Amino acid sequence: MARILVADDERSLREFLQILLEQDDHEVHLASRGDEAIKMSNETEYDLVFTDLRMPGKDGLEVLRSIRDLWPETQVIMITAHGTAHDAVQAMKLGAYDYITKPFNVDELRQQVRLALDKRGLLRENVQLRQQLSEKYTFGNLIGRSDRMRQVCALLSKVADTRANILLTGESGTGKEMVAKAIHFNSARAKKPFIPINCGAIPENLMESELFGHVKGSFTGAISNKMGLVEGADGGTLFLDEIGELPLNLQVKLLRVLQERKFKRVGDVEERAVDARFIAATNVDLEDLVKRKLFREDLFYRLNVIHIQLPPLRERKDDIPLLADAFVRKFARESGKDIRGFDAGAMACLMNYDYSGNVRQLENIVERSVTLESGNTITVDSLPAEVRSARPAPAASFSGMPDTTEFPRSGVDFERVVEDLEKRMLTWALRETGGRKTEAAQLLRLSFRSFRYRLKKYNMSGPDDEGD
Ligand SMILES: Nc1ncnc2c1ncn2[C@@H]1O[C@H](COP(=O)(O)OP(=O)(O)OP(=O)(O)O)[C@@H](O)[C@H]1O
Ligand SMILES: [Mg+2]
After folding, report:
1. What one-character-per-residue DSSP string does 188-205 give?
2. Atom nearest to 171 CA in ligand 1
């Protein structure tokens, strides 16, 4: 059942539509003037509106405009008299769904209503889907649409607002610190401190006092009472970076904080309570350290309540164009340059590079390229040499192709070999880019049009071919 408004100054026509639409179980409201229709549609969201073109008060185009502005998903069908088709076409340009001409054909009218409501339903679903997607698959400022990152973001949304300890693992530069901050700033603790500690950077003899604080005179150099980082994170989040580097004697003390939420300042007798959320990160294999007795097993399990593994960039290549574009915008803005992106060759190199330093390395590469580029688009020449040489090898040396100018004496089926190679390149490019045709075309350094032409030629275009 839909809610439908009928606006027409001709009473018999309003009544006719009312009877017909109510028979089909719709809720029907009536207006006899344009200004009345606008007023009613300002107050109620209709699924469908029939409006006469010429009416007292305001005309049908104004009704259409007002509804367009307020309820873009509402479908509008114009009612026209013979000889006013021109106005009706005008109305469709302004966004009307369709028009009907008096006198009505009942079957046709019913069909139009059904189609208009179908469209309305689809628009609705789309909006809802988009909303759900953006809620579910993005998190904080994290950039990434690959399946792997979507899984990570979905998990982050679930755990952010709990108190569960989290262990973040992943190679250097995969975004562990960024994720830790995103968790904090998307939790109820956001207004309290986020305190990062790099467990590998503080000298061992100072570590305990850094973490837990000390009282005056507890050791040489302790000239006054001092609060530690754990205490500073009260109410907020403590981020224990490079947790694998924490010395064993401090692991015991940290375990106590995790278990009992209590600690002592160095040299103090008084126990203090702390309410902090703990997020730890490491790029080493903690379980291996546990096996080698370099990391306490009990502490490992305490920290590892929720494990989030950040995938290396080379395993989520579909995120490269997104990240690279975001970084270009950032560095172009910072340096006051008008650079808008990468040309196809440069993007192909970026896609093909291996990134041992992951997102951080990509960010550095983009920053450098922005500095060197003098045009509006980053070209291969502005990329660092090692990235430039990641340019995909020319087709002739693709695996499986004979790397020779010699062919069997019996001859080769030229067309078939070339076709086969073309198909393999198309398939490869689609797979590399998760099916994104624009990016796949860039990888093959083809124009989008020519890429699409080839997909069609080999019957490889999906049903959404026009949508890319
Ligand atoms: N998903 C992402 N979206 C946007 N920027 C990201 C993303 N992941 C990482 N970055 C950026 O990459 C850089 C490195 O990230 P971060 O410092 O969080 O990595 P890390 O895993 O802590 O690395 P390390 O182990 O070397 O400390 C940062 O500048 C961060 O902003
Ligand atoms: Mg880090």
Report:
1. TTTTS-EEEEETTTS-HH
2. 25
Query: If DSSP codes are grouped into helix, strand and coil, which group holds residue 55?
Result: coil
- In percent, the amount of the chain with pLDDT more than 70 equals 92
Shared domain check, 326 and 282: no
Range of the domain at 399: 395-467
Tell me which of 177, 323, 358 to substitute to probe ligand 1's pocket, judged by most ligand atoms within 8 Å of the beta carbon: 177
Residue 139 lies in a domain: no
User: What angle in degrees, to the nearest 10, is found between the helix axes of 358-372 and 344-352?
Assistant: 150
Instruction: Judge whether 166 and 280 are in contact, CB under 8 Å.
Output: yes
Tell me the pLDDT tens digit for each residue of 70-88: 888 899 999 988 777 788 8
Question: Does the Cβ of 360 fall within 6 Å of ligand 1?
Answer: yes
Which residue among 137, 174, 282 is best mutated to probe the pocket of ligand 1, counting the most ligand atoms within 8 A of its Cβ?
A: 174
Asked, for residue 327, whether it belongs to a domain, the answer is: yes
CA of 177 to the centre of ligand 2 (A): 5
Take residue 385 and report the two structure tokens written for it. Answer: 């040499």
The predicted structure's pLDDT at residue 175? 96
Q: What's the mean per-residue pLDDT of the chain?
A: 88
In angstroms, the CA 47 to CA 415 distance is 55
Mutate which of 142, 149, 316, 360 to test ligand 1's pocket (most atoms within 8 Å of Cβ)? 360
Distance 179 CA to ligand 1 centre (A): 8
283 lies in a domain? yes
**pLDDT (tens digit, 9 = 90+) per residue, 84-142?**
778 888 888 888 998 888 888 899 899 999 989 988 887 777 666 655 554 455 688 89
- Say which amino acid occupies 307: H
Q: Which of 140-149, 174-183, 223-232, 447-456 has the highest mean pLDDT?
A: 174-183
Report in angstroms the alpha-carbon separations of 47 from 2, 107, 118, 123, 432. Answer: 6, 20, 10, 11, 42
Task: Give the closest ligand to the alpha carbon of residue 168.
Answer: 1
Residues 291 and 153 both lie in one domain: yes
Report the separation in Å between the CA atom of 225 and the middle of ligand 1, taken as the mean of its atom positions. Answer: 35
Whether residue 312 is predicted with pLDDT greater than 60 in this model: the reply is yes
